Amino acid sequence: MRAYIVVQIEIADPVRYEEYKKLTPGTLQKYQGKFVVRGAKTEILEGEWDPKRFVILEFPSKELAKAWWASEEYAPAKSLRQQSAATKMILVEGTPS
What we know:
This protein is α+β, with helices and mostly antiparallel strands and 97 residues long. It has a 4-stranded antiparallel β-sheet with strand order 2-3-1-4. It is flat and about 30 Å long. The protein has a domain at 13-41 and 51-85: Alpha-Beta Plaits (2-Layer Sandwich), CATH 3.30.70.100. Helix 1 packs antiparallel against helix 4. It has 4 helices and 4 strands. The protein is 33% helix and 31% strand.
């Protein structure tokens, strides 16, 4: 079953975050991950949720998604993200329609 990492991000340091954005794509290949949504504009349809930046990544399985998140390849980028932005991140399983 496919797995999706859904991320809400509020950037505090845009310069460092740009470095994160450059490093991250190359870390996904080994784990068969890909961006589905990356920083696209959001529109509120219901409720009060208003993410400043929104990202969705897709992986073939939750095991690969979690392996990527914990990987040595992603660690330098993850550290930059954690230093330059406030992040909320979840892992959800599902199948594309």
